[in-house]
Amino acid sequence: MRTSIATGLGALAACQLATTRPSFEPVPEARHAEVRLPRAEATRLLAEALREDSVPVALAEPRDGYVVTPWFDSTGVAASPDIGTGVVRVRGWVEPARVGSSELIVETVYRPMLDPSLPERELERAVAPDHPVAVRVDSVLARLARRYEGEFRGGR
């Protein structure tokens, strides 16, 4: 009895309950790419590539496989969340894929309206594929896929 309690407590203590990832999934229009890299390395390289392409990454957490920007305009300048496609946010999830590979799932969203009665996520919509930031995100994903023996698949 004591052994099973100690084992259970040990297992519970080993669990990492804190995460930087949000509780929601990417929007269905999120862009996808696969790279032959482990999750932590893929996360780090995704954040670096976005920064190199003027996408201002605010947080890159390799352990969680998550990258997020502040709200910013299409020139890369941080801005307050506003309505319309002029101010966007980019989020990236990095998931384990085939052995030795990771799937990069990256969304670019905007808010078409502000409504304090709704949760913020419910107000977010994917930008059009030809939006300047979406084009840059696609370019980053395609470049990473080419460089790390992967595949850029675009949307689902």
Describe the structure in brief:
With 156 residues, the protein is α+β, with helices and mostly antiparallel strands.
Q: Based on CA inertia axes, which overall geometry fits?
A: globular
Q: What is the H-and-E element order?
A: HEHEEEEEEHE
Biggest sheet descriptor: 8 strands, antiparallel
User: How many helical elements?
Assistant: 3
Tell me the β content.
Answer: 25-35%
> How far apart, in Å, are the first and last alpha carbons?
50 Å
What structural class do helix, strand and pairing data support? alpha+beta
Radius of gyration: 18 Å
Please tell me the overall pLDDT: 89
Please describe what this structure looks like.
By secondary structure, this protein is of the alpha+beta class. It contains 3 helices and 8 strands; from the N terminus they run αβαββββββαβ. It has helices at residues 2-14, 39-52, 132-147, and strands at residues 31-35, 59-61, 66-68, 72-73, 84-96, 102-111, 125-126, 151-154. Strands 1, 2, 3, 4, 5, 6, 7 and 8 form an 8-stranded antiparallel beta sheet that branches. The radius of gyration is 18 Å and the shape is globular. Residues 6-15 have low confidence and may be disordered.
